[in-house]
From TrEMBL:
One example GO MF annotation: ATP binding
ABC transporter domain span: 9-241
GO CC entries: ATP-binding cassette (ABC) transporter complex
Protein name per its UniProtKB record: ABC transporter ATP-binding protein
Range of residues in the leader sequence: none
Record family assignment: Belongs to the ABC transporter superfamily.
Protein's UniProt keywords contain ATP-binding: yes
Domain of life assignment: Bacteria
Source taxonomy: Bacteria, Pseudomonadati, Pseudomonadota, Alphaproteobacteria, Hyphomicrobiales
């Protein structure tokens, strides 16, 4: 079955169960052609299961998976226009780099001339900046280089979709950042759809065009990284994507004040539709400024308990009555000598009321 579609990948009410375990529950997603989408969520939320259903390594229990408008239910992995890069690169140790890259092409296109295979393998190696490494043995390559070989192998037959299952997890932090940048560049150059599974929110935010945040087998929010970070749709998303402070209280009628258990008031701006009653407020650490002055109406005071210097920023823990520990990130570069606040100081936590995200319910109910 085919249908005209600008979507590269479509999930229509897809569920997947393993015995009594529901791994994915009634998910619908549309991934545009040529997009870089990250599937982000905690361990066990169903990310890999989604990826495996795109790849054809798993079939949905119910619902439809389409690629380029073609129904994929029942189509085996090797007949899909999809390749996958695994966390363990699964390279053949007894093949050299070029042989590893050309192997897949030989399997899929057995009639292709050897010279053409070598040309395409060379091109793929150039794309991952490994031109000239073709004759090297795998054990002579570093971890980062092996990762690139795995990538070259996955793109050599120009799939429509490339699936990446935590591909950078085995690399150290510095190499990982470099590879994140390179993967993003490679995706732009190739123009094919990348779907990345990660539980690293920084990786998801920095690399992808769209982030799909999952929890407990369901999609909680899909959007551009900035949308997800700046406009989380629920507390779980605010909490999982980036750091956030959790403040519980009661939203008063009018949507401008959250009253906390100790009687203190927090000035906020609730979105239309958030009903008065129990709420949880998400406030980013960088949205708060520490100020040496008495609190105004709707602000809170606290005592600095810790300060951690992190290079360009510093993180402060502030014990605030009625709330508990509040995390504040200060931009160190813009701080003057007089801004430096030592533990023990009493400060006011100042923030723009519009920067606070107010969600109905209590934290326990909304975070699961
Ligand atoms: P992680 O980040 O830890 O890899 P994930 O978000 O990728 O997690 P999945 O691997 O998709 O999560 O698993 C989702 C749920 O389905 C989990 O509860 C998992 O235990 C279960 N599950 C996955 N594969 C199987 C399987 N083959 N048999 C039984 N249960 C499975």
């Amino acid at each position: 079955m085919t249908s005209a579609s600008t979507h590269n990948i479509e999930f229509r009410s897809v569920s997947k169960t393993y015995g009594s375990v529901t791994a994915v529950s009634d998910i619908s997603i549309n991934v545009p052609k040529g997009a870089f989408m990250a599937l982000l969520g905690p361990s066990g939320c169903g990310k890999t299961t989604c990826l495996r259903m795109i790849g054809g390594f798993e079939q949905p229990t119910s619902g439809d998976v389409l690629i380029d408008g073609r129904m994929m239910n029942g189509v085996p992995a090797y007949r899909r226009p999809v390749n996958m890069v695994f966390q363990q690169y699964a390279l053949f140790p007894h093949f050299n780099v070029e042989e590893n890259v050309s192997y897949g092409l030989q399997q899929i296109r057995p009639k292709l001339a050897n010279a053409e295979i070598a040309r395409r393998a060379g091109e793929a190696l150039e794309m991952v900046r490994l031109g000239g490494f073709g004759k090297r043995r795998i054990h002579e390559m570093s971890g980062g280089q092996q990762q690139r070989v795995a990538l070259a192998r996955a793109i050599v037959n120009r799939p429509s979709v490339l699936l990446l299952d935590e591909p950078l997890a085995a690399l150290d932090k510095k190499l990982r950042s470099a590879m994140q940048f390179e993967l993003q560049t490679l995706q732009r150059e190739l123009g094919i759809t990348f779907v990345l599974v990660t539980h690293d929110q920084e990786e998801a935010l920095s690399m992808s065009d769209f982030v799909c945040v999952m929890n407990a087998g369901t999609i909680r929010q899909i959007g551009r990284p900035e949308e997800i970070y700046d406009h989380p749709g629920e507390f779980f998303v605010a909490d999982f994507v980036g750091k956030t402070n959790r403040i519980e209280g009661t939203l008063e009628p009018g949507g401008k004040v959250v009253r906390m258990a100790d009687g203190g008031a927090l000035a906020i701006v609730a979105r239309p539709g958030v009903e008065p009653g129990p709420v949880v407020v998400a406030l980013r650490p960088e949205a708060i400024r520490l100020e040496h002055r008495p609190a105004r109406m709707g602000e809170i005071t606290g005592v600095i308990t810790h300060r951690v210097f992190l290079g360009s920023t510093a993180e402060y823990s502030v014990a605030a009555p009625g709330i508990g520990d509040v995390l504040v990130t200060a931009d160190h570069k813009t701080m003057t000598e007089s801004d430096l606040i030592e533990p023990g100081a009493t400060v006011t936590l100042a923030f723009d009321p519009a920067a606070a995200h107010v969600f109905r319910g209590t934290a326990n109910q909304v975070t699961t």
